[in-house]
Write a structure and sequence with these properties.
Layout (H helix, E strand, L loop, with lengths): L1 H10 L5 E12 L9 E18 L4 E5 L6 E3 L9 H23 L12 E8 L9 H16 L6 H16 L6 H8 L4 E6 L5 E5 L7 E11 L3 H19 L10 H6 L3 H25 L7 H13 L6 H12 L4 E5 L4 E9 L3 H14 L6 E4 L7 E2 L2
Parallel strand pairs: 3-5
Antiparallel strand pairs: 1-2, 1-12, 2-5, 2-6, 3-4, 6-7, 8-10, 8-11, 9-10
Helix pairs in contact: 2-3, 2-4, 3-4, 3-5, 4-5, 6-8, 8-9, 10-11
The structure holds alpha-D-galactopyranose.
């Protein structure tokens, strides 16, 4: 394994262990996680692998096979760029340890493990770049999974996902929901992860497309529009404002959609329409998957895309063209996946239509003078785990 060789070269010793955490693709349930709603992502066969050894002096030494310069951090605060995702996990786990220590001082809680010290780390990733397949969540989750084991923290997979999300929210400063980290930590081979983002209850739903003669293609637009991060925070705010106006804790709680829409206008009205109907679509997809009617989920994927494009306004020309040309080429359904403004679309395609979908998408991109998007099938893989 090349991370092990690189670890030896960098630090002159063997790593204590090697861990892997995958990226994710979301089948349906977009921009619902931070509204306490439902999501249905699955973990991918690609992600981030980390060779790690603990250090008692608290120092964090990092090397990425995808970056030139190694990084040495006396404290997490010194980190910049990609290293902040790693440093943020140390920060989040140390914070959690401190809070637990204080609670124990007050006679509550049970201590577990040692305080999180430092580590020597080498990471290697094989997720397609800029594809919106959660390479940052994979990086956070692999580090959290390794530290959990090396420092004996006894965290569950969901607690690992929450620590990774805390790193991204409070250290990196990206106000994401829990979906990406949960999919990376809890994914199972051959299954999609149904997650209730309020209760954090999960169910693994069998998602075996091959036995139905189907494939789920990822179409990587290769673009990432810069406005993405600011727009994400704005959408979140729109949703919170709408919930406040409606007197509910979160848009998840809207039961009378028509009544709610009558009380809202503008952006808040459109965002609410998307979130409430998207939650319904997730439940409908689950119902169809349970009934073995996988082919029938296509219409719900199409409806999700239109809602994200017109009501939530997070699509872009490259995603719309990918979706429309995939459907024209014979896909049973297609939608943008992830946060939007670039990244990837997904298309549900019968085996005998895969070539025609590829040609249709490539042709539509070529017509506009855009680079041919990468297109590859995705199957659900196992979540974060120790490899060595
Ligand atoms: C990004 C965020 C997730 C989720 C999606 C949209 O991937 O990290 O938490 O909100 O966007 O569904």
């Amino acid at each position: 394994m090349r991370v092990v060789g690189a670890f030896r070269d960098s630090y002159g010793m063997e790593p204590a262990g090697v861990w892997h955490a995958p990226g994710r693709v979301n089948l349906i349930g977009e921009h619902t996680d931070y509204n306490d709603g439902f999501v249905l992502p699955f973990a991918l066969p690609w992600g981030v692998t980390a060779a790690v050894s603990p250090r008692e002096d608290g120092v964090i030494r990092l090397r990425s096979l995808q970056a030139d310069e190694p990084v040495t951090l006396a404290t997490p605060d010194e980190a910049e760029g990609w290293a902040r995702y790693v440093a943020g996990v140390f920060w989040a786990l140390r914070e959690a340890g401190r809070e637990q220590g204080q609670q124990e001082g007050q006679g509550q809680g049970q201590g577990q493990g040692r305080p999180v010290g430092g580590a020597d780390v080498v990471i290697d990733g094989d997720l397609p770049q800029g594809a919106g397949l959660s390479s940052s969540a994979a990086l956070e989750v692999v580090v959290a999974t390794a530290l959990n084991e090396l420092y004996g923290l006894g965290l569950t997979k969901m607690e690992i996902a929450l620590a990774a999300q805390k790193a991204e929210n409070d250290f990196v400063g990206m106000p994401c929901g829990i979906m990406d980290q949960a999919a990376s930590s809890l994914g199972e081979e051959g299954k999609a992860l149904f997650l209730d983002c309020r209760s954090l209850g999960t169910r693994n739903i069998p998602f075996d497309l091959a036995s139905h003669g189907l494939q789920l293609l990822i179409i990587n637009t290769g673009v990432h529009h810069e406005l993405a991060d600011g727009q994400y925070a704005r959408r979140r705010k729109d949703c919170e404002n709408a919930a406040k106006r409606l007197g509910v804790d979160a848009l998840r709680d809207v039961t009378d959609l028509a009544g709610a829409l009558a009380k809202l206008s503008g952006d808040e009205r459109r965002r609410t329409q998307h979130v409430v109907t998207e939650n319904h679509r997730v439940e409908a997809v689950i119902g169809l998957l349970r009934a073995g009617a996988v082919r029938e989920i296509g219409a719900l994927l199409n409806a999700s895309h239109l809602s994200l494009r017109d009501q939530f306004e997070v699509s872009c020309a490259e995603l719309d063209v990918a979706v429309e040309s995939a459907v024209r080429g014979g896909a049973r359904g297609a939608r943008m996946t992830g946060g939007g403004f670039g990244g990837s679309a997904i298309a549900l395609v019968a085996d005998d239509r895969v070539e025609s979908v590829r040609e249709s998408v490539a042709g539509a991109y070529a017509e506009r003078g855009w680079a041919t998007p990468e297109i590859y099938p995705a199957t659900p893989a196992e979540g974060a785990r120790r490899l060595l």
